[in-house]
Amino acid sequence: MKNIRNFSIIAHIDHGKSTLADRIIQECGSVTERELGKQMMDTMDIEKERGITIKAQSVRLDYVKDGEHYILNLIDTPGHVDFSYEVSKSLASSDGALLIVDAAQGVEAQTIANVYLAMENNLELIPVINKIDLPAADPIKVAEEIETSIGIDATDACLVSAKTGVGIRELIDAIVERVPAPVGDPDSPTKAIIYDSWFDPYLGALALVRVFDGEIKKNQVVKLMSNNEEHQVLDLMYPHPLKRQKTASIKSGEIGIVVLGLKDVSVVNVGDTITDAKKPTAEPVGKYEPAKPFVFAGLYPIDTDMFEELRDALDKLRLNDSSLSYEPETSIALGFGFRVGFLGMLHMEVIKERLEREFGLDLIATAPSVIYNVYLNNGDLVEVQNPSELPPINHIDRIEEPYIKATVITPSEYLGNVINLLISKRGTQDKMTYLNEDRVMLEYSLPMNEIVVGFYDTLKSISKGYASFDYEPIEFREGDLVKLDVKVAGEVVDALSVIVPRTSALTRGRALVKNMKELIPRQLFEVAVQASLGNQVIARETVKSMGKNVTAKCYGGDITRKRKLLEKQKAGKKRMKSIGKVQLPQEAFMSVLKMD
Ligand code: GTP
C-alpha cells in the first residue's frame, strides 16, 4: 500500500487535462505513441465534439522511480459543474490532486470551484502550470494568481507542457513524492466507495470503486449500503482505457472495476458504499445522496405517435445515467410527453441531443425551469417543477426558489459590465478579490432561475469571451414570484407558462408577446397573443389575418411551382403544433427563452 498513489486532475475546461492525462499514461509506458494518436481519456462522441469530459475515466499505471515500483491510479473527474456530485466522489477516492492552470490564461472560475471540493476532501494539492510552451505563457504571474485566489503556496508549482512533454517526468516524480500513500486497514471488513458507474453492453452495470478497508474478492457476496441490495462479484478488473486487466481481488488502497452482472445502473449509484454482505463495515464512506435534478423541462415528440419511442429512448439512456429522471406529462398544447429532470443545463443539452441524434426523434423542449418549494396556506409544501402547475395564487403562502453561489473571474476592464449583469439577475455580492491588477474574482449569490437561460452566453458576450463562470447550489430562499401565462386566441398555452419575479413580469410579458407575434404565421383570421397574470392581461399583440390564399399568386400559372409551395408548407407543419385553430411553430415554444 505504501507504493500506491491515488490522484485526480482538476482544471478549468481547455486548460489541458486530457492532454496531460494522456502524456502521463504515455510516460509510464502504458501505451505507445501510436496508440496515443487520439486522446484516450474522453470517450463519448459528444464529449469529443465539445471537448468536455462527462464520464470519469480512470487508469492504473506502473512507474519506477529510483528502482522502486509504484502503482499510480489516475482518477479522472468530470470537468463540468453539472456533475459536481460525481466530481466530489472522485475526489473523495483520491489522496491528492493535480491542480492544472493554463500558463497563458491563469486561474478560472472552474479551477476555484474544484479546489473548494478538493479542500473539503483534505487532498494534497500539487499546482501544475501547463502550456509553458506558449509564447504568452507567464508562469510567475499565474503562480501568484493561484496564491491569491486559493491561498496555497505555488512557489513549487510544476511547470509543464503537456503538448511537448517538457516537465512531465518531474511531475510524475512529484506525484510519487508529494501525494500521500493511501491509508486503510487491510484486515477490517470490506469498505469501498463507488465513484463512477456505467453500463457495458457485454458485462452489464459496472462500478468503479476505491477500496478503503479490507478487499473485494471475486465471488464474494457484497452489499450496497444505500439500498441493502446483495450481489455476487462476478469479475474484477483494473481500469485502463485500452487494456483492462483482470484481477482476483482489489485490495485496500486500490481502485478497480467491479462486475456485478446487473442489467442496469440504477442500483449501482455513485457515492454508495460497497461492503461485505455477511460481515459489513459499521459506517459507510461519507454520506450517500442520490443525484438530485436541478433543472426540469418538458420533452415532447413533434409527432404525437412517437411517444412510446421517446419512452424507450429515455429508458435506454437511463441504463447508463442514473441521474436522469422523467415522468409522463400531458400538455394541452403539446400532447403526451415527459417532464425530465437534469443535473444542469449541459446535462439537458446532452440528453436532448442524444435523443435526437442517436434515436432519430424530433422533439420540442419547453423552456427549462428550476424546482420551486411552494408553501400553501394550509401548511402543505408542494414541489413545483412545471410552472403551469403552480397552485392558484390565493392558496399560496410563499414560494421559495433555489439559489447558487456563483464564481466569476473577469479581466478588470469588463468588471462594470459583469457586475451590472449579476445585479440585473438579482445577484448579491459576497466577495470581490483582485487576483492582480488585470483580473478580478467575484463571488455572488443569485437565484438559479436567472442562470438557466442565456446567462452564460450573455456573460461571454459582455466580456468578449474572457469571463469564466462556475456555480454551486446553496439553499432555497423566499422570492416574490408570479406565474406569467400566455394566451393565443384566448386559450392559455400551458407549455409557455413561466415563473418570474413580480418586478420583471411586465417587461417580460411585453417582450414575450412581441416575440410570439413575429413567430406565429398569419392565419385566415386575426389572432390575439396576450400575456397575463391570472386573469389580468398585462400585454397584448395581434397577428393580422392573411387576407388571401398563399397559392393565389401561382393561380393559373405553373402547376409544379404550386405543388412545391404546398409541399413546403406541409413540411413546415410537421414542426407545428395546433393550439385550438392556430398553428404554432416550434420556435414559439422557445420564445420564452428570449425575453431580455
Ligand atoms: P476537458 O475536455 O474538459 O478535459 O478539457 P481539457 O482540460 O482536457 O483540455 P484538453 O486536454 O482537451 O486541451 C485543450 C487544448 O489545449 C487542446 O487544443 C490541447 O491541444 C491544448 N493543449 C493542452 N496542453 C497544451 C500545452 O502544454 N501546450 C499547448 N500549446 N497546448 C496545449
From TrEMBL:
Gene Ontology terms: cellular component: plasma membrane
A GO term for molecular function: translation elongation factor activity
Residues reported to bind GTP: 14-19, 130-133
This enzyme's EC code(s): 3.6.5.n1
Domain Tr-type G: 2-183
Main localisation: membrane
Listed Pfam families: EFG_C, GTP_EFTU, GTP_EFTU_D2, LepA_C
Database matches in SUPFAM superfamilies: EF-G C-terminal domain-like, P-loop containing nucleoside triphosphate hydrolases, Translation proteins
The protein's enzyme class: hydrolase
Catalysed reaction, written as an equation: GTP + H2O = GDP + phosphate + H(+)
Membrane topology annotation: Peripheral membrane protein
Entry superkingdom: Bacteria
Cellular localisation: Cell membrane
Keyword line: Cell membrane, Elongation factor, GTP-binding, Hydrolase, Membrane, Nucleotide-binding, Protein biosynthesis
Protein's GO biological process: positive regulation of translation
Gene3D superfamilies named in the record: 3.30.70.240, Elongation factor 4, C-terminal domain (3.30.70.2570), Elongation Factor G (Translational Gtpase), domain 3 (3.30.70.870), P-loop containing nucleotide triphosphate hydrolases (3.40.50.300), Translation factors (2.40.30.10)
Family recorded in the similarity comment: Belongs to the TRAFAC class translation factor GTPase superfamily. Classic translation factor GTPase family. LepA subfamily.
Function: Required for accurate and efficient protein synthesis under certain stress conditions. May act as a fidelity factor of the translation reaction, by catalyzing a one-codon backward translocation of tRNAs on improperly translocated ribosomes. Back-translocation proceeds from a post-translocation (POST) complex to a pre-translocation (PRE) complex, thus giving elongation factor G a second chance to translocate the tRNAs correctly. Binds to ribosomes in a GTP-dependent manner.
Protein name: Elongation factor 4
Protein species of origin: Sulfurimonas xiamenensis
